[in-house]
Amino acid sequence: MIKKSLITLSLITGCFFAPIKNATAQTTSDSKMNAKVDEILAEMTIEEKIGQLNLLNPGGGVATGAVVSDNVQQKIKDGEVGGLFGVAGPDKIRIAQDYAVNDTRLGIPLLIGSDVIHGYKTTFPIPLGTSASWDLEMIKKTAQIAAQEATADGINWNFSPMVDIARDPRWGRIAEGAGEDPYLGSQIAKAMVEGYQGDDLTKENTMIATVKHFALYGASEAGRDYNTTDMSRVKMFNEYLPPYKAAIDAGAASVMSSFNDVDGVPATGNKWLLTDLLRDRWGFDGFVTSDYTSLNEMIAHGMGDLQDVSALALKAGLDMDMVGEGFLKTLKKSLDEGKVTEEEITTAARRILEAKYKLGLFEDPYKYLDENRPEKDILSEESRAFSRKVAAHSFVLLKKDARVLPLQKNAKIALVGPLANNKNNMLGTWAPTGDPQLSIPVLEGIKNVAPKAKISYAQGANITDDKQFAENINVFGPRAEISETSPEKMLEEALKVAKKSDVIVAVVGEASEMSGEAASRTNLLIPESQKKMIRELAKLGKPMALVLMSGRPLNISEESELNVDILQVWHPGVEAGNAIADVIFGDYNPSGKITASWPRNVGQVPVYYSMKRTGRPGEAEGFEKFKSEFLDVDNSPLYPFGYGLSYTDFEYSDIKASSEDLTMDGTITLSATITNTGEHDGEEVVQLYIHDKVRSITPPMKQLIGFEKMMLKKGESKTVTFEVSADDLKFYNSSLEHVAEAGEFEFFIAGSSDNEFKNTFTLKE
Ligand code: BGC
User: Fold this and answer.
1) Is 291 in the pocket of ligand 1 (CB under 6 A)?
2) Global pTM?
3) Residue 159: CB within 6 Å of ligand 1?
4) Record's SUPFAM superfamilies (predicted)?
5) Coil, helix or strand for 442?
């Protein structure tokens, strides 16, 4: 059967210089908002305006810095607070909102923020995992469910999506984003904003999305968190900025500035970034918050004292100060001394009031505080079932040559490994609103899905034997506990259960807090305690599958040499064990594709598919002197971007263009036939890559410009077509103009970035 599917590329075609909105787009609701906000501003004292710029965290939740706000109650009553975060539940938030509404002179309600990064109580896989599904509708729905649940608990402003491009797996926060590619990252950014905000922010189940961390946070040097970033404008515009812009074009109503500096000025006080680029060129009309105390941290960056950095940030375009209270403590003084203007303060206050208006808080400050909603809207059976589905779709089959998976449901299985019967690590990093105790461990999931399987379980190893390392990752509670049983004894138990079983499933990898914020690693190996167990089990020569959990690409060069199957499952969320069982027993055939390349070793980092060729390309295997290569390892990653296997096999053929030429105002159709040649039905993520052979700035070797996920039954063929126009071939030239240049383009359509170009077309003047 030949089924034709058509997708039209909607690349990030908007020019970085053209404001998105024009004057005629002003709607009646805009003018109503302006009238309301003008009316309030006219009543406000300068202190009340400054109060709106202050965002506090009363504590009790996760504090990601050294400071937690004090005396919050009194500050709200004194009109010194514009918003809170780190509080949840209609009852608690009602108390805070009451102070704001009833005890302040003007009764302005509070914004209530939260970090809902991958689900609220229904935790989904970590974002890096979800991105591996390449399923935009599914990703959007995760954001909708997150909004449904968070708003039921009183939240109206979310600190997500994180859209930072990350090409350095040493950086722990790679877990929170969509990986290395600007095109895929942009599509996902858009889907998430649409999911959180819906088409109407006044609805009670939508919330403001925050694009973070603006900008370039993922490029911190050496992957060390909060570290300096420095890059050319051309690289920024082509490779790092597109996802932020895509989120803003999708209507994100707020932006969070990042901790790092950009061109030598911390993002939080960077006028080029927060005003020239964000507002003047991109037309952003929402509000900008700092990150957690990132305003005060400009003191440590070397930008002056609290008064200096607060004035700098306000003038740069920052509207809200998270936890730092620099605005609160110094702006009045700066105004009196002529260091800032009243207009600058009013502009920032206006933006905060506009956000409150957009949410409908002036009409009803209590609209998110319906006590009946949490019970009804949070952690429903449907949402949990959906989380299970998303998790299964996020898993990536990295290796299948041992052909151990899928398992028979009546198999005699040795289930081993420190993550095999564990709840504390299933949710993954940055899941402060989730409850690890509600998560399904792998052992339980297997029993649910395959009640007839004969399972013997042994922990086999600690996550790590290193006490100091364990302590460093246990800051939010026990994630890597060191057992009282000796490592030798644990290994002995694992070998014992393995010997009496037909197949070994080892669930290994990183604890959840080995990735995430302030969780950078210089060593990307599975911890040695577990590597040792894997080696010893492999020596038994029994069929063996590794179920690998991590928040980042790891260096698994050693394990990839073993005769085992490897299924990468990230940190899968609240339904972890059920989803893993669905996939290892073949109820769902894995279809995920990695969105950040996996290095052969840490010395290769950064390694990403869209690297430039250099003048001395070193693309072949093996070493050649005077080429851009390493003496000891090939340039290619162990597993490239876009890679992921299936229990079935797919073959690509007939990769062609509808014509040899494309005109500047025309379109061309690029197509391929995909056939499921294996023994299972399965889904495939079909990817389109181009290479601009000659252009005015050096091109990347490959560039993703389209993809489509499709289901193919066993034996089925489908033709996929991509309609491409000159817009899809655009890049930022050295004058930062968004242009497509005439010339020849190579392309291929495949199931991974690691493929040869198959055909060409020419873009004509
Ligand atoms: C993180 C942000 C987060 C904020 C508030 C910071 O440390 O960088 O991503 O939104 O804390 O919790």
Assistant:
1) yes
2) 0.96
3) yes
4) (Trans)glycosidases, Beta-D-glucan exohydrolase, C-terminal domain
5) helix
Rounded CA Rg of the chain? 26
Over the chain (765 residues), the average pLDDT of each successive run of 10 is 35 37 56 97 98 91 65 94 95 94 97 98 98 98 98 98 98 98 98 97 97 98 98 98 98 98 98 98 98 98 98 98 98 98 98 98 97 97 98 98 97 98 97 96 98 98 98 94 97 98 98 98 98 98 98 98 98 98 98 98 98 92 93 96 98 98 98 98 98 98 98 98 98 98 98 97 97
First to last CA, the chain: 39
Atom 2 of ligand 1, residue of closest alpha carbon: 291
Q: Which amino acid is it at 555?
A: N
- Cβ(214) – ligand 1 distance below 6 Å: no
Indicate the residue among 561, 578, 599 that finishes a domain: 599
Q: Same domain for 363 and 400?
A: no
Give me the catalytic one of 291, 321, 692, 728: 291
Alpha-carbon gap, residue 234 to 190, rounded angstroms: 23
Q: Say whether both 369 and 496 belong to one domain.
A: no
Strand residue runs (E) in 283-384: 287-289, 321-322
Ligand 1 touching residue 517 (CB < 6 A): yes
4 phi and psi angles, rounded to 5 deg:
-100, 130
Query: 213 C-alpha to center of ligand 1: Å?
Result: 9
Distance 471 CA to ligand 1 centre (A): 22
* Cα 106 to averaged position of ligand 1 atoms, centre (Å): 30
Question: Do 502 and 412 touch, CB atoms closer than 8 A?
Answer: yes
Sign of CA dihedral 619, 624, 629, 633: positive
Whether 727 is a known active-site residue: answer no
Q: Structural domain tally of the chain?
A: 3
Q: Is residue 448 part of a domain?
A: yes
CATH number, domain of 284, equals 3.20.20.300
Domain of residue 736 covers: 650-764
